[in-house]
Amino acid sequence: MTPQEMESRIVRYGDLIPCKTAFIDAHTPGSDQKENFTIIGGGVSESADQHVHIRDTPGFNIGAAGQPPKCRNSLHSHRTAEVFFVLKGRWRFFWGRWGKAGEVVLEEGDIFNIPTGIFRGFENIGTDYGMIMAILGGDDAGGGVIWAPQVIEDARAHGLVLGANGKLYDSKKGQKLPDSVKPMPLLSDDELKTFPEPTTADVVPNYVGRYWDLMALSDRQPAKVIGEQGLLRDKPGFEVELLSRNSIPATPYVLDTHEVLMPMRGHWRLEFDGGTKTLNPGDTCAVPPGLRHALAPSMTGEASLYRVTKTADKAGPTWRH
After folding, report:
1. pLDDT-derived band at 79, boundaries 50, 70, 90
2. Homologous superfamily of the 216-310 domain (CATH)
3. N or C: which end of the chain has fewer CB within 10 A?
4. Are 137 and 238 within 8 A, CB to CB?
């Protein structure tokens, strides 16, 4: 692989192109300043304005959300896995029909394998612009987003209508729902009863990994974070590991599956048959199967990197009742 070919498989943090109209709450006060990034795969954006950096999916999608302080992402649910780790800032995640069933605050480097099938939202509670990186299960990311009824109603009051076809129509841009398309129906009371309402005590021990705990686990070998043998035991269609300075493979290696590298701290040197690249915090690199390569921190100091690999598991539910 040439250096130019590898560069085309790297999405640099500084090159990320945001979409401010990705979802139905784009005009709702308190949520109207958020930015959505689709890095690998089509993600779950409802807007034709969304830029996709790398369209080919490795069995999962990679995205990100950037928000200024006090900006909130509204309550929604997914049919497949949704995993976040905090790249920058301090974030509060909350869940339940009204967002009051439970909550957890995550710091930089913390990771949250959000249980599938519950309503969830998040907000930046830090003092600066924050960024969270996302891993979504499946090539099609589960077919979109399921919104809490009040989110759809609030959006309509601010000029955005979601069609049953999953597309947004913005009256502020002169758009209207086509005659052939019905509005996205609100979930009925009976349907809403099927969404679990787990407490904080139900969720945090089994679905949240703290960065410094993972760093300690990665002292001699990669810390298995999400997977059948992970700290957060799950089979969502991919595995997640945290690598630090002391746990990188000693020699070059080859995988027979897709591998995505997402540096958290430090600068990393990726050597491969054909050249060398440097990966920085916030970058995303899609390493193809069969490529012989090696990783090493390129500078002294703290160094950590999340590694995501595809598994043969179906990208299905993660909630354990």
Report:
1. confident
2. Jelly Rolls (2.60.120.10)
3. C
4. yes
Would you kindly state where each structural domain of the chain is located, as residue ranges? 16-208, 216-310
Residue 25: which of 72, 88, 91, 94 has the closest Cα?
A: 72
- Tens of pLDDT, residue by residue over 180-191, are 999 999 999 999
User: What Rg value do the Cα atoms of the chain yield, rounded?
Assistant: 19
pLDDT at 319: 58
16-208: which CATH number, 2.60.120.260, 3.40.640.10, 2.60.120.10, 3.10.450.50? 2.60.120.10
239-287 tens-digit pLDDT: 999 999 999 988 999 999 999 999 999 999 999 999 999 999 999 999 9
Pairing between strand 35-40 and 130-137?
unpaired
Contact 121, 74 (CB under 8 A): yes
Half-sphere exposure of 8 (CA within 13 A, CB side): 7
Q: Report the 10 Å Cβ neighbour count for 148.
A: 23
